[in-house]
Structure formats: C-alpha cells, structure tokens
Specification:
By secondary structure, this protein is mainly β. The chain contains 8 helices and 47 strands. The two termini are 43 Å apart.
C-alpha cells in the first residue's frame, strides 16, 4: 500500500502546473469534455455545464475492461465502492451511502422499489453489462430530479439503442462475444443484432452466464479461507473438509439476460420506442451467512436466494417540435416485475424457511425542455410511481415434505405510491458564469395491513403520508478557458419504504426487527465545491470536496413489542428492534482525478476517494462510524492506445479500517473480517496489479482479456462477505459488424 501512495505522490509532485502558451491540445481536451453528454438533470447536457461531479463510463471503456456484472461495471469509474455478500451480488456505495440511499435508473426509469432495504442489495446485477451503451454516476443528492432515495448519488444506465438507416438500404449490425474467466470458471456468451430502416429500427440482445465457485487469492489473511463447508446434497448435513481452502464453496450460479427494443419515427420530430428487459438468475448462495459460526461449528446448512427475476416493459415518446410550452417533450411509461426469495435452514434442522417477495411497479414520467430568452433554459415535469408488494412464506420439512405456513417478510398486498412535480432552470448571464436552480415537491403514501396470525401486532395496519421538498443551487465560474470552478448546494430525501415501516426480519442471529408505522422522511443537506483544470497541453485535473448531513436518519434501536423486549422468531428467542428516526449522519470527503497524456499514445489516469463519517447512537449516547463509509480507495491506470491495440496496466487500492473506526454493525459481523493482534475484527488495506488488453483482428474480429490480481492477493472489499477473486485470467473473443 505504501508503494501505491509513493507512486501517487511522485506523479502528483512532478506534474507541470503552468499554462502552456500554445493551447491547441488543451482546447482539444476541453472540447472533449464539452462533448461528453450526460442526463444528470433528466435531459442530455454537456458535462462542462453541470455544477456537480459526474463520472461517465463510455462504451469503449466497457469493451476494454470487460466487466463481469453491472456492479463491476460501476466499479470501472474508480469512484464507486462495490460491496459483495456473495458472488451473485454487488451493492454500490457512493459517498458513504448505499442500498436504499442511492438510486438506480435505467433508460429514465427508477429501479428502486418499496422493498429496497438498508442491508446490502444486489438488484443492479439484473442489468446486462453487455447491453449497456454507457453509464453515469451523479454524485451527491439527486432528489430534485429523481425523487426519494437519491441521497448519496444516482447511477443511470443507458442501454443500447436501435439505429435507423440513413438511406434506402437496410442497416444491419451484429455484435457477439464469448468470455471465459479462470477465478470462477466463468463462461459467458453474448449476442446483439440490430436492423434499421428510415422509419423503424430494432435491436435484440441475449446473454448467458455460468459461474462456478469463486477462488480467492493465496496471499493474505488466513481468516478469509474456507477450511470446511456443509454438504447438504446427501440428505444429511455433513461437515466436509475443503480440499482447497481458497475455493469459496458454495458460490456459483447462472444468469440469463435479454433485451428487445423497437423504435418508430412518426415524422422528423417524433419517435416512439418500446423496450423489454428480462433477467433471471438461478438460486445463488448467500456466502456470508454460510460461513457464520455458532458453538464452534457452522450455523447454517442452507442459506440461498431463490431466482432473482426482473422484467421491464417501457414505452418512450420523444417529440422535438417547438411550441409555446416546450421545445422538446419526453414521456415514459414503465412497468416492472421484480421477484426475489430467501431460503434458509439451520445446521441440523429439518425445516427450511422459504420467503418470496414480488413487486409490481408502474411508473410514468413526463419531461419538458424550453429555451427562453437569451441563454436561459427551462426544464419541468412530473412523475407518478406505484408499487404493489406481494409476500408469501412457508416452511418445508425436508424429511417428510410437509409444508406449513410461517410469517411473511412484508405485509402481503402492501402499496407504496409517489407523485411529484419538478422545475429546473439554467441561466448563463455571461460567458464565464452558469447558474442552475432546481426544485421538486414529492408526496408519498404507504399502506399496509398486518396479519396477526403469527404476531400479535399492537396495530392492524399502517398508513403513512409523507411530503418532501428538495432542491439545489449550483454555480459554475470559468475565469479562463482552462478552468472550471463550481459549487453546489443541494438537498435530498428518502421517504420510508415498506422495508422500514412494515417488515419483520432477523437482522442477525438473536435480533428481530418489527414494524414501525410512525416513521417519517429522512432529509439530507449537501455542500460541494470543486474544479476542473487543464494545465499544459495534455493534462486534466479534477477535484471535488463535499459535506453531507442526514437528519432524522432511520436506524435500528431497541424497542418493545406488546410490552416485551424479546420475542420468538423462527424458533429463536430474539431481542426486539425497530427502525426509528433517531439518528444523524455526517459524511465529509474528497474525490480527485488526473488524466495525463505522458507521451503520444501513452496515458496516465488516477482516481482517489477519501471519506470520513460519524453517526450518533442515541442508545449508547455516543458517536460511531456509519456502516457504509468506505475506506480510502482508488486506482491508477497506465494505458497505451495504438491503432489496433490497447493495453491497460493498472492498480486498485484500498486503505484499512481499524477496530476503533469499524461501525458497530460491522463489529457484530466479525466473522467477515481479519483479526488484529488483539483478536479484534478490522479491514486490512490492500492493492492489486492488473493488466487488460484488446487487439483488433482484421475488420470484424477482436480479442480482449487480461490478468487480474497478478500477485494473487487474498483480500475482501470492506463490509463484504466474500473474498475477491484471486489471480484471474480472462479471455474474450468478439466480433462486430
């Protein structure tokens, strides 16, 4: 780790920070920045005109780095921390916030549902990285444009679009890819093909992935190894010695992804697009629960998620003819069907608990853009979202086959509804100044009826009505053409979901969380300032500092249920907890990046993320580190780009978190961590060396691949339940026409 910081210091100390008189190359870099188009404000805008930090992941970067999942794709930015509890996972962390405090969106539609929880979520893996054209990460509160949950940031995925022909000849395009990776014996096959005429176009995409058990590295903390596991395939729970303790058994799973889009042009100014997305996994083990020990042996014989299923139907209307009310109009109707399930059985028990949740999400967005006098643009629109949750549960006796009822995770038939209107304006009073103001009003309603069959709830149901105002004020100042200075004040919010108000679940063994219908909205307040500097002919430096306060934060705390502080849940006497608006979270940090063309065709880039936070603990009357504040992390890349060859040598690195700075909830999951000299859990620092390359083989074919974790380090991302891949050889053969 010290070597990595020494490299970074050497690079920074040697940078030429004087302006060049010949600014032709600097102007080229500035033009490239201005050409990067993002949709942080729901409409496509040049990145240079946004008073906030945005990371854009391009199609060329996705193709070179060849990520395994959409969660790994987000990690390509170098600014998003990815937590994993199992191989079939990936929970993004942005500026100290995660899960239901960050927002996922695909093609303008929010993916977050009423059952996005405070624990780690893996819904992002439903997206196919091979069908994504580009992705954006908008840092800081985005509630003014995207509503509830957008506190830490917004991750917006743009999938491939149908392409129209420009002439009378039929346009056809085909892309195919076959990929193999050694660490998990991954086998992935992908194909997408598009056809287009002047008036209509179509694209079809299909991907199949198969992952075996994941092998970790051989050099690192011994606590991460897997010396034994439970073999439940023989009808009895056998504690089995692992012939290769670096092989994480069980972790493998399979996944299908498909996408179909069709676009139709009704004249020169109107386009209609229908899209269908489909994703389904096999069962996949929850590895962090399968390595948990109790009484000197493993606690669980089975713990796995059932197939995670996702379907999205959407219809998008785009109209670009000017009128008194708008210059451009975009309307999107979306229908999503989510399904997930949990299946667990304690070691030696004959009864497995099966809980399944389905969410039907219907949404409608309409957005308008209007050019006013001078250089002033006006944006406004509205959004309606409704979620219906169905939850069922049962217990299976694996010996007799008898099925009996048990408590559901959520109230069956519960609903979560949201309606909002927003307005935003961009003003350019002079060539050096840009000001942007946004505001949004949101109303949220949650309804749930509780079943008293298994718990004698002191209430028959919950009806929560919440409202929230959110907004931001941002200013850009360009003192000279090579500087961009900006500052931004923004607010965000998260309305209580069904996962907060109405869920009954075990947060960890011995604790059970019960419903609290009285929850209200969390409010975030954020200040950010940063700059982008072009120095010399081929160097760009960017920096952002931020401070976020989350008031009225929802946190678990001790509670009474019918006057008792404990109750029996799944056969275990457990302490009663509930979600309560009792906490406050502070997060401060900085993000920095460098992009430097050292010599022709050779490029050096870095990303660095530093954050610190604290959360008050009313129960104990003190402060502690929030669970999702990641350690120092980042990456360094040295890239060669030739006419037919691209080579990327890079290092990823993470700082450590010692026991004293470990969140209380993480200390409770001590089995996930290495042990310090005092046998206390902590998260060690680590760094890896990696190589990726891509070679063009003629006009239509290319081969890409690389060697990840060349030094075979054994490490875990902070808060993760599964160790990262060890030395991993990746080979891909692709064709495009």
């Amino acid at each position: 780790m010290k070597t990595v910081f020494a490299m970074a210091f050497f690079i920074l100390s040697g940078l030429p920070l004087t302006f060049a008189q010949d600014t032709e190359k600097a102007d080229t870099l500035i033009n490239e920045l201005e050409e990067i188009v993002v949709s942080a404000n729901r409409w496509e805008e040049n990145l240079s005109e946004l008073p906030l930090r945005v990371s854009a992941i391009s199609a060329s970067e996705i193709r070179l780095r060849n990520p395994q999942t959409a969660a790994d794709l987000l990690g390509l930015s170098g600014n998003v921390f990815i937590q994993k509890s199992q191989l079939g996972g990936g929970s993004p962390v942005i500026r100290g916030f995660a899960t239901n405090r960050v927002l996922l969106a695909v093609d303008g539609i929010r993916m977050n549902t009423a059952i996005f929880r405070s624990g780690n979520v893996q819904n992002v893996i439903s997206l196919d990285p091979h069908a994504i054209q580009e992705a954006e990460v908008v840092f800081g509160p985005g509630s003014a444009m995207y509503g509830s949950d957008a506190i830490g940031g917004v991750m917006h995925f743009h999938t491939k679009k149908p392409e129209f022909a420009t002439g009378d000849k039929l346009l056809t395009k085909v892309n195919a890819l076959a990929r193999y990776a050694t660490a998990s014996k991954e086998k992935t096959a992908h194909v997408d093909f598009g056809i287009g005429r002047r008036r209509w176009a179509s694209i079809t995409s299909v991907t199949r992935s198969d992952y075996d058990h994941l092998r970790m590295g051989s050099n690192g903390p011994e606590e991460y190894t897997r010396p034994y596991y439970i073999d439940a395939t023989t009808g009895s729970d056998l504690l089995t010695a692992n012939n290769d303790p670096n092989l994480q058994i069980p972790t493998g799973y399979k996944q299908w992804n498909a996408m179909q889009k069709m676009s139709f042009r009704a004249g020169d100014s109107t386009k209609l697009t229908y899209a269908f997305h489909f994703s389904e996994t096999s069962d996949y083990p929850r590895y962090d629960r399968l390595i948990l020990e109790e009484g000197g042996t493993l606690a669980n014989a089975e713990w796995y998620y059932g197939p995670q299923k996702w379907k999205l139907h959407s219809l998008t209307l785009e109209h670009g003819r000017s009128s008194p009310l708008f210059d451009q109009l975009k309307a999107i109707i979306g229908y999503q069907a989510h399904e997930e399930s949990r299946h667990n059985r304690s070691l030696g028990s004959s009864r497995r608990t099966d809980r399944t949740e389905k969410v039907r999400a219907l949404s409608a967005n309409v957005d308008f853009e209007k050019q006013l006098r001078g250089n002033t643009r006006f944006y406004y629109g509205g959004e309606v979202v409704t979620n219906t949750v169905n939850s069922v549960a049962s217990r299976l006796d694996i010996n007799s086959g008898e099925i009996s009822p048990t408590s559901t995770r959520y109230p069956d038939g519960a609903q979560w509804r949201s309606g909002a209107i927003y307005v935003s304006g961009k003003i350019e009073p002079s060539p050096k100044w840009i000001m942007q103001l946004s505001s949004r009003y949101t109303s949220i309603r949650t309804e749930a009826e509780f079943d008293n069959t298994f718990f004698d709830f002191p209430f028959s149901g919950a009806k929560a009505n919440n409202t929230a105002f959110s907004g931001n004020i941002g200013v850009i100042y360009n003192p000279v053409s090579h500087w961009k200075l900006y500052t931004n004040l923004s607010t965000g919010f998260r309305a209580p979901h069904l996962a907060d108000i109405g869920k009954v679940f075990d947060s960890e063994s011995g604790n059970v969380v019960v419903p609290n219908p009285g929850l209200t909205v969390e409010h975030a307040y954020n200040a950010e300032a940063g700059f982008v500097l072009f120095s010399g002919p081929s160097l760009k430096i960017d920096f952002a500092g931020y401070y976020t306060v989350l008031n009225n934060a929802i946190a678990r705390a001790g509670a009474l249920f019918n006057g008792e502080d404990s109750l029996e849940y799944d056969g275990v006497l457990s302490r009663v907890l509930s979600q309560q608006n009792i906490s406050k979270i502070w997060v401060a940090g900085a993000q920095a990046g460098i992009n430097w063309e050292v010599v022709r065709n050779f490029n050096l880039s870095t990303a660095l993320n530093y954050q610190r936070g604290r959360e008050n603990d009313p129960e104990n009357g003190r402060n502690f580190s929030p669970a999702h504040v990641a350690p120092l992390f980042g990456e360094i890349h040295f890239v060669y780009r030739g006419q037919r060859t691209t080579v990327d040598m890079y290092s990823n690195f993470n700082g450590s978190i010692d026991y004293d700075h470990l969140a209380l909830s993480e200390r409770a999951d001590s089995h996930l961590y290495a042990k310090d000299p005092n046998s206390n859990p902590y998260s060690p620092s680590w760094w890896t060396l990696n190589l990726k390359a891509q070679f063009s083989l003629g006009k239509y074919f290319y081969v890409s691949g690389g060697l990840e974790n060349i030094l075979d380090k054994r490490y875990r991302m902070y808060s993760s339940g599964i160790a990262a891949p060890g030395r991993n050889l990746i080979i891909s053969l692709g064709a495009t026409r």
